[in-house]
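G., before I forget:
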Amino acid sequence: MTRKLYIVSTTAFWLAVLGLGMTSALWNPAEQGDVQAQGKTVTLAELAKHAAPGNCWMAIRGSVYDLSTYLPAHPSPPEIVLPWCGKEATEAYNTKTKGRPHAPYADELLAKYRIGTLVKAP
Amino acid sequence: MSRLHLLSLPILLLLFVGLPVFWAFPEALPFWRSSGIVLGWAGAGLLLFNLLLMVREVRLASSLGGLERITVWHHQTGMVAYLLLLLHPLALAAAGWGESPELARKVISPISESWPVWLGWGGLIFLMLGLATTFMNHLAYGTWLWLHGLLGFGVLIGFAHVLQLGISAGAVFALFAALLLLLWRMLRVDLGTAAKPYIVTSVRAVAQSMVEVSMKPLAMPIAAAPGQFVLAAFFKGPGYQGCGEFHPFTVSGLGQDHEFRIGVKALGDCTRHMQRLEAGVSARIHGPFGEFLKDLPTRPLLWVAGGIGITPFLGFLRQWPVISPTTLIYLYRGEQDAAYLDELTALSAGCAELSLQAEATGSGLPDLNRLLPEAAALANHECYLCGPPGLIEAISRILLERNVPVERIHFEHFDFR
């Protein structure tokens, strides 16, 4: 009984993973709309005004992201992420785990929250 | 079994799963992401619980309802933990699916340069491989045990995965607890530090491919009772080199000065080698375990033994006379396999309450409908079964059909893999 359950569940798992991979390969990103296009210019001073958990903007790699709604879903404890609200956080983003950057998955997720471009003038 | 013993495992299970899930329960997250997190922590809690069930301490085993029960729970909760941990990445991927299938793939893709994902996959693959080898019963016990250890490695990698996610408090505790339990098991059970030193005093053949081994303690004795079993490993003697693996054997008799006897049937490579045991061989004994014939009720008893399953009943009869009407059905393949039959016949002749029914069954399953008493004759009986799993299953089914309540059917079979 347990042996059968193991075989069925393991096979179903790999089929699901395979199905996910194949669907992803056939996915046409053009249908998503161009989220990168939206945006405005944001200064460091304006960025600094959004430094609260419920109003959290971060500048990463030249873009500004409004992460207010995403923060509760971030896997790290709040004390690791919250201090970067209202700041230029590229270095923190690039050195997440033992000096490694976030995964491509995170890059793609981050793009959904882009609201503009950072201008270095205060 | 007392109510406290009966509830001990469910209560521990609730604690091991409930506490981490409560601690890590996500708030205000999308459904699938919350589900992924809860599944991960529930699976992790179950794995820790499972490691606790590998620890074979005499008092702990007794308070949890016996080693046999613990092993059944170990098998079942291990499988459930595996299922939860298979669903964990799939639920997280489902959370990304709302955004795009590409995002769903990237959540669990091992191609991405991410230690948490690599470790997550590593842990899952080790669990998968370890569990696959668990079902390979044809492997020699020693090989099987080492391959089964892959599961422990998978658990440690899994908790390292949690640590890499930045969830330090929970992960450090879980990793430490897992390491402690694995080390405990390895040192106390597999390397035998919980076992007591004994020496073989005599060996006699009791049937084809079966010997009875008498041993006496070299230091502190174990407190064994007839019907209980021990984990025994044999090592070096004057002309013998044992395989050193711990195998379960029922205590078939007690002697003077804490000496005791076990029946050893050749069922695998190591036990086949034990047929050549001789006096003077050193042994280590861990136990005793089991409460099979402890606190027998005063109502009539039906004992059914298949092959080497006769040893707990023999051990009991050698020590004490039965005081309730007792029918002992002893099933063996052929005359050459009928261990202890002469002794059992003599014991039965000397005890008015004991009725012996010995049957040579051949290699197939016997006609149990004929051999077992009819429903009317079984009324008010307490039934005790010991033998191969297939035989016990078939007998239990017939007893239930003949209106014996399930709580009056007790069985013991040594399936500790």
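Confidence is low (pLDDT under 50) at residues 32-37 of chain A. The longest helix of chain A spans residues 2-26.

More on Monday.
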